Amino acid sequence: MIPQKTFVSPKIIFGRGYLKKLATVLLEEKIGNNIVYFIDGFFTNSGFEKVLTFTGNELFFYVDTKEEPKTEDIDKFVSNIKESMTSQSDVIIGIGGGSVMDVAKAVSILLTNAGLAEDYQGWDLVKNDPIYKIGIPTLSGTGAEVSRTAVLTGPKKKQGINSLKSMFDYIILDPELLQTVPKEQRFYTGMDCYIHSVEAINGNFINNFSHAYADKALQLCEEVFLGNKGDDDLMIASMFGGYSIVYSEVGVCHALSYGISLAYGIHHGEANCIVFDQLDEYYPQHVQLFRKMLNKYGIQLRKGLTKNITPKLLDKMVDATLLMEKPLSNALGANWQDVFTRKKIKELFLKM
Amino acid sequence: MIPQKTFVSPKIIFGRGYLKKLATVLLEEKIGNNIVYFIDGFFTNSGFEKVLTFTGNELFFYVDTKEEPKTEDIDKFVSNIKESMTSQSDVIIGIGGGSVMDVAKAVSILLTNAGLAEDYQGWDLVKNDPIYKIGIPTLSGTGAEVSRTAVLTGPKKKQGINSLKSMFDYIILDPELLQTVPKEQRFYTGMDCYIHSVEAINGNFINNFSHAYADKALQLCEEVFLGNKGDDDLMIASMFGGYSIVYSEVGVCHALSYGISLAYGIHHGEANCIVFDQLDEYYPQHVQLFRKMLNKYGIQLRKGLTKNITPKLLDKMVDATLLMEKPLSNALGANWQDVFTRKKIKELFLKM
Fold it and tell me: Comparing C-alpha atoms, which of A275, A22, A250 is closest to residue A151?
């Protein structure tokens, strides 16, 4: 195994209004006629079907993103596609936020690999080449558009399909698609990029490659959320933040935030913010800047979440945190257990 | 045609000593046994053959890089390979500076496409898939390791084989390989990155994608050549600089520097420096910083090149400059001819 490598989608186009280039991309890439769309449920009545019907052999799925995608959702989409299309689908197109990206990635794999989605959660378990896929993000910050994983919640675990075959073949970055994102969601998802870049750049695993990407991602986030830069730069920040964690790892915030999501069903971006606000001890300067951004955006974080928590639930959250060995080694060193004790973790959770 | 797109090599690994991972890469990528190396002539007696013989079916070519590669060189390499190897070669590996990168790219194409190298100079003329190729730069700044072109001098013109099929399939970035680069060459090649990033970021064609890459490339160059950053960051700067011009264009400096190279046979990096030193009018702040770098590195630029120039040669250099329409539009706008006149160009050349 090569320990550290970057694998990126080789084809990216960037520009306002570039969604309109999709038809040209399909022609140039010599893809067939059977097109399957996964579109964020947010756009259900936005008239996308009219704009995106090119061949007449399109299938449109609107993905409910209230909850993050489950393996059983993928299995249902796959059997639905197999029933609905007379021949093999030629291209999968995901238009949406991180969840929709993950659905498109996973379906493209399961259409050509037998079994259930849960069979492929893990590292490099995918055998056959997937269906050609195109990612068109409408929300920026997760980095899912450039990552090599499709995160799914299965019956046994929440884990990604980590595989080169999860990567999009083509990415269209169109900043105009960000203009309808609700303010709070834009903030929380943008902060996902900010926080994983902070964790990468302050971690032990960082190298010069990741550092360059993380540093620029942070600068762009600060210019977007504290200065006057807009969606174009937020979209680039998301891409750079995604690249920055290829060679690095997340840190203390992600280790704790999974516990918050697990216990309270709070989405990843918001959970990260709730946790990050308590991490002055680990990321002092960036937490200060984060609070400035919160103020500037008028975002009120939920408080007192754990006020009436039962000892049992608190223990479960601590257990989930302690499983995050790689992020915690990255943040605190090989002997992280000496300083990041159950007691310490509980104290942090009880502040939230 | 999609006007603006980024196509990048999807697989990059970065780290000190990573040349040693080549054997693992060949195994993991399931490449066959017939390996053709193009290695910078600089390394002729460096013992690379011993380290890089894995299968016994290797061919080693040491590339003389005193002059930039010609199409006839490529044709000779190709017939030599076809005579020497009993079966088709499986992988082409380029280890060297920009010229060696270009040779490896071009040979990989000509091994599977009939005719002569000069037949493919231009845009998207390559039909068949090339031989799998790996780029391992030993000099940083040109961006050739990530670009989609293989620049060649042919009987009719100097032009690249501009094609997706010119791109490396795999790139190994090992900063240790930079440690033997002579000081002046390191400076001039590094400045190639600095100058094309300056031209990109100050041009009219820039977008947010290129801007982020160019801005970070400039910052890294300044930290390397004015601060205390080293080869690791120079290597990343080169990659970022290469990406920055995908969506942009070069400018006034490159438009003039081809004339200098043409007339005096001066290598691209050095020619750029000689020109850039006279461009306060166009890139004032960056020229100031460039002079600080010159001083810090104790580099003495050649002076008085055009002191005894004949009117005929000067006219030829002006003609070559005026052909550079795209860089000049990028730098000076659509009406560049109104301000960048023959008289103006002559004045600039006569300062060099």
Answer: A250
